[in-house]
Each structure stands twice: as C-alpha cells, then as structure tokens.
Design goal:
The complex is a heterodimer. By secondary structure, chain A is mostly helical. Chain A is built from five helices and three strands, in the order βαααββαα. The longest helix of chain A is centred in the last third of the chain and has 19 residues. Chain A is globular. By secondary structure, chain B is mainly α. Chain B has a two-stranded antiparallel sheet. A two-stranded antiparallel sheet of chain B has the order 4-5. A two-stranded antiparallel ribbon of chain B has the order 6-7. The chains are: A mainly alpha, B mainly alpha. β1 of chain A pairs antiparallel with β3 of chain B, so a sheet runs across the interface.
Chain lengths: ~130, ~350
C-alpha cells in the first residue's frame, strides 16, 4: 500500500517515488511485473496524473522501471549499483534532518539507531541475491 | 392542445405526487445516511451529529423541509387544477430547489463546526477489483436487446421515424450509462484502500453498478415495450409510470440500507474508531462548491462519493466529466426535439 501526506512539505511526486521505491527495494514487485498505470494511481491517490508521471519518470531514471506508452510501468531487473564518493553525502543531510525530527519528537538516540539498523537489515535480507 | 383521458391524468398525477413524497422522505433521512464525519457536506468530528448543536441543526433543517415540501405539494396540486397536467413536472422541481435551500441553510450552520480532514491518502498497488456484476457480458445485454428490437422494427415497423428516434435515443442513453459503469470500475477514488472499510466500499460500489445496470435493462425494456405494443393501449403503457416509481423506491431503499460508501453496514459501527483528524472523504471542504459540486483540478478522479446523497458525484474540473454530462444530456434532448417536431406543420 502506498501512503502520502498532502500536508507534508515533501513534494507529492517525491513521496510517491519514495513509497514506490520502498516497495521495489523490499521485493514486493518482481522484474517484469506491472505497476498501476499513471492514471489509475493518480485516481486512487486523488492527485494530478502529472504528479504520478513525474514520480514514475524519477524511478525510471534510477533504473527501477521501464516506461512504455500504453503499457504502463514495468519493473526492471536492476543491478546493485556501486556507491560513488558522493552517495553517502546525498543521504547524510536528509538523515540528519530525520534524526533531528525524531529527537525533537521525544525519541531516544539509541532507539532511532536501532530502528535504522533493523530497517536496513530487513531490506538487505530481501534484496540479497 | 391534446386532452388526455381522466385515468391517464390520475396515473401521471399519482406518480408525480409520489415522486414529491419520495423526494421529501429522501431529504429527511439524508443527513443520517452520509459518512459519520460528514454532516451537511461539511467535515465534522465523528460525534458531532449526536451533539446538541448537531441535533438542533438537523431539527431546524427538517422543519424547513416539511414546510417547503408542503408548499411544493400545494403548488403542484393548484398548478394541475388551474393549468392542467403540463404543470405536473414543475412540482418536483420546486421541491428540489426548495429542499436544496433548506440543505444550504443547514450547511451554513454546520460550517463554524468544520474541522480539517486528514491529508493522508492511500492507494492499493494490487490489480483492479471486479466491480460490474456479471462483467461486460451482462453489460452488453441491453445493447443486444436494443439491436433485436431495432431489427424487428426495421423489418416489421409501420413508422420508420419512430424507430429511428428510438434507436438513436436509446443508443445514446445506453452509451452514457455504460460510460458511468466503466467510470465506476476505473475512475472512482476510494476513500479507504484497505481493511473492512475498503470491503464495505467495494460492496457499495458494486451495488451502485448493479443499479446502473438495472436501469439500463429497465430503460431498454420499457422503451421497447412502449414502441412494440400498439399505441393507445393506455393503461398498459401507463403502468410503466408507477413501475418507474417502484424501481426508484427499491433502489433508494437498497442504497439507504448500505449508507454512503457502505458506512451503515453492520460491521461499520464495530470497526469505526474516533480518529483525529477525521477521515471524511479525504477531500477538503473548499473543493465542494455549494456543498454539492466537486471541483478540484488537481484530482484525477472523475467519480467522487457524494457528500450529501447516495452514490457518486463528478469532478467538474475534469474535461471527461463534461463529456459524460454531454452524453447523458443528448438522449433526453433528442427525445424532446423529436417530440416537438410532431407539432411542426407538415409539408404536403
């Protein structure tokens, strides 16, 4: 199930892309499987279809999806990419912001760390070749 | 001017009078048939309708409704007595307009109690669920009936003009209703994407689809019957008027049993929890013009649950909606134009 928050400051297309990526990383969709069409997903979420199309394009650029006219979005077999020098840098900032939000909401540093490690391990197990 | 026999006038008057009474009954119960966190098309906390303020608004609305319905009934009876049967359809129209006024006044009283609905939206990523009962085979039935009847008229009919008008108006009507069926299957934005609420919603959608399908069959059979039976078999043909009323009554009772979006089904009360903020129909109040017209250009959905009423409304910000509206209006327009041409002087 995909969930977005229209009140969030994160753009909707990014929330959709993030949600779908999480589903793809967790292996809920196998290569060759079809995702809902742009229109169907836009209707189900009650957002403009351009917003969903943008999210699909983003995932296609990352190599997760293959977009075909009139056939929708098909999940691609994706190689595990090598992390470049700037990869960690791209994650540090949003991660720090997320951790700060968690701490501000009363979570302890240790529980946050435990949560992150468990999430990463869970996804690693599912995506392991 | 044509004069109709007295029994014809009585049947038409009883049917229209029945429509006025039925309309009043629907409007009476409507505030209690919507989702629990929507009240007079405004998002409210789920318990609000049972609070003193909520009850007082409802009581005032119902008093106004009785008043306008009585006025509509008096105008209807007086109009028929003074101007004849041609005045008949004006009665329900007056009542609908006045009923809307009562609703609008109640809505204005609810607005100060409005709360922001949840901004969370969910979508199921699994494939499409079957909505149309009997699938497209059942949906093609009325078209087959229409083709058979048109074929019969083509071979045996004595009045080709009537046959053509019948074929054109019925084809357009059926296409319009089939588009509605397709829309129910593909263009509805669900309020819940999982859990028992989702199951109830799907049940409700299937019921509405069954109603549309039933209406397609009903319309085709009625029109074919009217065309195939010899003219002036008055009472047999007129029997279809009360039958239409009975059909409408059954539909309303079935939908009322479900409640909007299945919210009145037995399991709804058990599973409903007071959530903050309320879910409502996951649309902001500002997109509902006058409380009944949904206009949201950022929403791709064409069909949206009505906020005050049973079934679905259209998103008037989408071009597809206007296409559907045009389709649904063409058939009656063709029928009216065809009727009017009968009064034009004939060329010799």
């Amino acid at each position: 199930m995909l969930r977005i928050d229209l009140a969030s400051r994160v753009p909707v297309y990014e929330q959709i892309a993030n949600g779908l990526r999480a589903e793809l990383v967790s292996g809920k969709f196998s290569p060759g499987e079809k995702l809902p069409t742009v229109r169907t997903l836009a209707i189900n979420l009650g957002v403009h279809h351009n917003t969903v199309a943008e999210a699909y394009r983003q995932l296609a650029n990352e190599g997760w999806l293959e977009l075909k006219r009139h056939r929708g979005a098909i999940v691609r077999e994706r190689d595990h990419p090598e992390a470049g020098p700037d990869t960690m840098e791209r994650f540090t900032r949003p991660l720090r912001e997320l951790v700060a939000k968690g701490l501000a909401d009363g979570l302890s540093p240790s529980s946050l760390a435990r949560e992150m490690i468990e999430a990463a391990r869970g996804l690693e197990e599912r995506t392991a070749p | 001017m044509t004069h109709q026999p007295i029994e014809t006038q009585v049947i038409i008057a009883v049917t229209i009078g029945g429509m006025v009474i039925l309309n009043a009954a629907i409007l009476w119960f409507m505030p209690r048939l919507t989702r629990p966190d929507l009240y007079f098309a405004v998002t409210v906390p789920p318990g609000f309708p049972d609070e003193p303020d909520g009850k007082s608004i409802l009581s005032r609305y119902r008093k106004e409704l009785i008043l306008v319905s009585l006025i509509a009934l008096v105008v209807f009876v007086a109009g028929i007595a003074l101007l004849g049967m041609r005045f008949g359809p004006v009665g329900p129209l007056i009542q609908t307009a006045a009923g809307f006024l009562a609703f609008y006044r109640a809505r204005k009283r609810v607005l100060p109690h409005a709360v922001q609905p949840t901004m969370i939206r969910e979508a199921e990523l699994q494939p499409y669920t079957r909505i149309i009962p009997g699938g497209w085979i059942a949906a093609s039935g009325p078209f087959v009936l229409l083709a058979l009847c048109t074929g019969y008229l083509w071979i045996h009919g004595s009045s080709p003009a009537r046959g053509i008008i019948y074929a054109v108006t019925m084809t357009v009507s059926l296409i319009g209703l089939t588009v509605l069926l397709y829309g129910l299957a593909h263009w509805v934005r669900p309020v819940y994407s999982g859990g028992p609420e989702r199951v109830r919603e799907l049940q409700f959608r299937r019921t509405v689809a069954a109603v549309i399908l039933g209406a397609e069959y009903y319309l085709t059979i009625q029109s074919s019957w009217l065309l195939l039976v010899p003219p002036h078999q008055g009472l047999i043909s007129l029997g279809l008027f009360p039958l239409a009323l009975i059909f409408a009554l059954v539909v309303i009772l079935v939908l009322a049993r479900f409640g909007q979006g299945g919210s009145r089904l037995a399991s709804a009360r058990k599973s409903s929890t007071a959530s903050a903020p309320p879910v409502g129909d996951r649309t902001a109040d500002r997109y509902w013009k006058l409380g009944v017209f949904y206009f949201n250009p950022d929403d791709s959905a064409i069909f949206i649950e009505k906020r005050f009423g049973l079934g679905y409304s259209l998103n008037f910000a989408r071009p597809t909606t206007w296409g559907i509206m045009a389709l649904l209006l063409i058939a009656p327009l063709v029928a009216v134009l065809a009727h009017l041409t009968q009064f034009l002087p004939k060329r010799v």
